[in-house]
């Protein structure tokens, strides 16, 4: 009976814990949700404690009986030399040994149940603490919508040109797009408006997605810039096709020591789906992270650099292989990216806590599948945070500054 109660309580706790992330986008109402289930869980924990106490009492009684049986067997052996009595005593001792084994097994079960009970009680305390914190945070009525800024434009720089000064969510409609779509605009003190197309923050979003998901986009856009997402290849194509001013792709990188570096690529563009969202750019504009898109000589083969360059490569996903490799780079790495054979840069890779990982950590295929930029850290170091964002070339350098090794383009 006790194990079934344990499983029920554990199941309820897992249900409760997993529901926190989905119940309400703003976390409001979670406390009420918790308190609704709290009495049932408390009742199950009480049942578990009663069952454990009952089992413990039974074990004590059994131990006392075993002692009595041992004494009786010893006395019988001493008082009667008869062979029959000796056999009976031996049988009694065998019974005693079986009882002892049963007691040991029961004691182990009790110990395991006590550990589960203690773990559940700790988890209950943690959930109650979380509930109180959420209750304090959610004094305001639950808001099921987020703040979307009113200014619109063709991209985030156009939004900034129209007077927007706050980073956040905006609707934009590039000339090639059939309808407006939501983006996160990063607007800095110089009124530069970066259209963010990718964010990696904490590994909360799985980037192992199929072709359609990478085409349409996935993840979560948030006004406070705390979430992970891929904007979508089709939207990126609309943002870069037919631009009258060259588009710069800026890549911001953060490692696990908090160091920050970046790389800029001029004349960045994505072809339409019929050409498998091929990546092209004119040239590496600068930055202190190095030019990983140009490929890298790993020392494994003389053609390493050629076969790991990304300019001109089509996009691949686990279910749509467009790379130059005999196998499927996207499948073995568990992501979508502009694969060659396979990569020197891979910002949609698997998220590894702490940065360092090994071929064994990489799973079945054992290849470097982390979030890598090999001209900064080697391929067995997975970065903590990445951002990919777009801006017109003429606005990249602002206020007479020189941005990370990039010369100012005054008259362009």
Short description, anyone?
By secondary structure, the chain is an alpha+beta fold.
How would you characterize this protein structure?
- InterPro entries: FIB_ANG-like (IPR037579), Fibrinogen-like_C (IPR036056), Fibrinogen_a/b/g_C_1 (IPR014716), Fibrinogen_a/b/g_C_dom (IPR002181), Fibrinogen_a/b/g_coil_dom (IPR012290), Fibrinogen_CS (IPR020837).
- By secondary structure, the chain is of the alpha+beta class.
- The chain has 2 domains: 136 residues, no CATH class; 240 residues, Gamma Fibrinogen, chain A, domain 1 (Gamma Fibrinogen, Chain A, domain 1).
- Strand 2 and strand 3 form a beta hairpin.
- Helix 1 packs parallel to helix 3.
- The longest helix is centred in the N-terminal third of the chain and has 55 residues.
- It is elongated.
- The termini are far apart.
Strand and helix map with partners:
Blueprint: H1 2-19, H2 30-79, H3 83-137, H4 156-161, E1 168-172, E2 181-187, E3 193-200, H5 211-216, E4 218-219, E5 229-230, H6 233-240, E6 247-254, E7 260-266, E8 269-270, E9 279-280, E10 283-286, H7 304-308, H8 329-333, E11 345-346, E12 372-373, E13 385-392
Antiparallel strand pairs: 1-2, 2-3, 3-5, 3-13, 4-5, 6-7, 6-13, 7-10, 8-9, 11-12
List keywords for this structure.
14% strand; disordered N terminus; disordered C terminus; 412 residues; 8 helices; alpha+beta; nine-stranded antiparallel β-sheet; 2 domains
Give the oligomeric state of the chains in this entry, treating copies of one chain as homo and distinct chains as hetero.
Answer: single chain
For the sheet with most strands, the description reads: 9 strands, antiparallel
SSE sequence, one letter per element: HHHHEEEHEEHEEEEEHHEEE
Q: Please work out how many helical segments DSSP would assign.
A: 8
Distance between the termini: 78 Å
The computed structural class is alpha+beta
In what range is the share of β-strand residues? 5-15%
Total domain modules: 2
The total beta strand count reads 13
Rounded mean pLDDT is 82
Under CATH, the topology of the largest domain can be stated as Gamma Fibrinogen, Chain A, domain 1
**Shape label:** elongated
Helix content: 25-40%
CATH architecture heading of the largest domain: Alpha-Beta Complex
Q: Can you tell me the residue ranges where pLDDT is under 50 for at least 5 consecutive residues?
A: 1-27, 399-412
**CATH C-level name of the largest domain:** Alpha Beta
Q: Give Rg in angstroms.
A: 32 Å
CATH superfamily of the largest domain: Gamma Fibrinogen, chain A, domain 1
């Amino acid at each position: 009976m006790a194990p079934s109660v344990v499983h029920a309580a554990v199941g309820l706790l897992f249900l409760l814990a997993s529901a926190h992330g989905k119940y309400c986008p703003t976390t409001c109402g979670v406390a009420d949700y918790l308190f609704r289930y709290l009495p049932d869980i408390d009742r199950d924990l009480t049942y578990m404690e009663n069952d454990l106490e009952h089992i413990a009492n039974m074990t004590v009684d059994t131990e006392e009986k075993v002692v009595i049986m041992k004494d009786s067997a010893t006395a019988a052996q001493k008082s009667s030399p008869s062979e029959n009595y000796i056999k009976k005593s031996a049988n009694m001792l065998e019974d005693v040994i079986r009882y002892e084994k049963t007691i040991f097994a029961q004691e182990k079960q009790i110990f395991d149940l006590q550990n589960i009970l203690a773990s559940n009680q700790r988890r209950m305390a943690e959930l109650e603490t979380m509930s109180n914190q959420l209750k304090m945070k959610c004094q305001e009525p639950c808001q099921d919508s987020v703040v979307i800024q009113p200014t619109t434009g063709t991209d985030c720089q156009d939004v900034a040109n129209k007077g927007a000064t706050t980073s956040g969510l905006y609707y934009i409609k590039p000339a090639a797009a059939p309808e407006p779509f939501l983006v996160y605009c990063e607007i800095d003190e110089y009124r530069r408006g970066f259209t963010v197309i990718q964010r990696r923050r904490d590994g909360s979003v799985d980037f192992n997605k199929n072709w359609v998901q990478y085409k349409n986009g996935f993840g979560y856009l948030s006004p406070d810039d705390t979430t992970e997402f891929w904007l979508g290849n089709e939207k990126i194509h609309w943002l870069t096709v037919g631009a009258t001013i060259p588009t710069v792709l800026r890549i911001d990188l953060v490692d696990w020591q908090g160091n920050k570096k970046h790389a800029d690529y001029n004349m960045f563009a994505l072809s339409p789906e019929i050409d498998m969202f091929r990546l092209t750019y004119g040239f590496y504009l600068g930055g202190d992270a190095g030019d990983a898109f140009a490929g890298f000589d790993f020392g494994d083969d003389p053609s390493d650099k050629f076969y790991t360059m990304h300019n001109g490569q089509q996009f691949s996903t686990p279910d749509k292989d467009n790379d130059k490799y005999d196998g499927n780079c996207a499948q073995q790495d568990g992501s979508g990216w502009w694969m060659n054979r396979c990569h020197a840069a891979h910002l949609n890779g698997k998220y590894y806590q702490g940065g360092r990982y090994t071929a064994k950590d990489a799973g079945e295929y054992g290849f470097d599948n982390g979030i890598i930029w090999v001209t900064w850290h080697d391929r067995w170091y997975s970065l903590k945070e990445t951002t990919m964002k777009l801006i017109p070339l003429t606005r990249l350098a602002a206020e007479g500054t020189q941005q990370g090794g990039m010369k100012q383009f005054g008259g362009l």
